[in-house]
Amino acid sequence: MQRKSNRRQGPSTRAIHLGYDPATANGALTPPVYMTSTYAFESVEQGTEIFEGKREGYIYGRTKNPTQGLLEERVADLEGAEAGLVVSSGMGAISATLWTLLKAGDRVVADKILYGNTFALLTKGLTKFGVSVELVDFGDLQAVARAAAGARVVYFETPANPNLRVIDIAAVTGIARRAGALSIVDNTFATPILQRPLELGADLVVHSATKYLGGHGDLLAGVVVGKAADIHAIRMNGLRYLTGAAVSPLTAFLVLRGLKTLELRVLQHSRSALAIAELLAEHPGIASLSYPGLPGSPGHAVAKGQMSAGGGLIAFELKGGYQAGVAFMNALEIASRAVSLGDAETLVQHPASMTHAAYGAEERLRHGISDSLIRLSVGLENIEDLIDDIEAALSAVPSEVAR
């Protein structure tokens, strides 16, 4: 039957159907999981051609698996990329990418606000092998332009972990391109549902698929997407022998399952987070608040131009600082005190002592990560119940601490 429209299908439709025909797998509606570590060749000649790249095929599970391949195709499509690579964790994706692109003598320019383990990889890992790293305030585009001259890679997150600082993707990637540097954007917090950095000039995009892409807190995985040639190099170098960070077939299957509801989940996370951000903005006990989707919040104007909604994360501080934050977090009953984000459950954590402990105290202060900062990952519970929980926890903060 002739298709009535040439309109590009929506992200949920593509995440559910792209790249798979049940007729190729005995009619199985759900793509099968290929639980094998190695693959047989019909002949020596066929195996040789596959190894030489002259023929498509599978060789060994560390390089690629059919279940993984379908996931890579779908994530790349959602991000608007030519190709993708799925590995065993978000840090696996970042490290495999950087180890492939960099060599001794190269220089990386990165934003000063980064996930704690990314910060550690850049400042304590790469530098051991002759790669220099310069941390810059990416809110200062002139400083970025000065630093980018002669750099090999420009790296940043937006919204940034943990304080949700928003970076102008088009402006920074434009600076990188003019300087001859490759730009890499961590899009974990926004997901391709809300933001697509490649469309704004980025060369590569990385994700911790552990978070929103998986969506259920039951797996570890990472993704990098970009041009086919770059992804091939990362697969054959960064994955195959530099890190060995292969994803398991079952994990790839679970992320594929998560993608089917990604759009629904991310939009609901965003709706609930906005309602909570509006509540916090009016509460007298809040000292500062950052939520990209909230008018008046830092970075909202930039976020409005590159994100379709504010996402599911909120960063804030209470009057009374650290002690007030501890009292608030300990009083929550629905929200769990746990690191990570993007789960169905609402999670709250203290970055200075948890996800960003890799920063020293002076480094946190210098880079805008206060000891009183709280990061809230808003889950999929009913919003009325979350609001009741948060209001009760705010009320539980002792008055002598809340001043």
UniProtKB/TrEMBL annotation:
Keyword Flavoprotein (UniProt): no
Matching InterPro entries: Cys/Met-Metab_PyrdxlP-dep_enz, Cys_met_metab_PP, PyrdxlP-dep_Trfase, PyrdxlP-dep_Trfase_major, PyrdxlP-dep_Trfase_small
Keyword Metal-binding part of the UniProt annotation: no
Short name of any one Pfam family annotated for the protein: Cys_Met_Meta_PP
Alphabetized UniProt keyword annotations: Pyridoxal phosphate
Cofactor(s) needed by this chain: pyridoxal 5'-phosphate
Gene3D superfamilies recorded: Aspartate Aminotransferase, domain 1, Type I PLP-dependent aspartate aminotransferase-like (Major domain)
Family statement: Belongs to the trans-sulfuration enzymes family.
The protein's name: Methionine gamma-lyase
Protein species of origin: Labrys miyagiensis
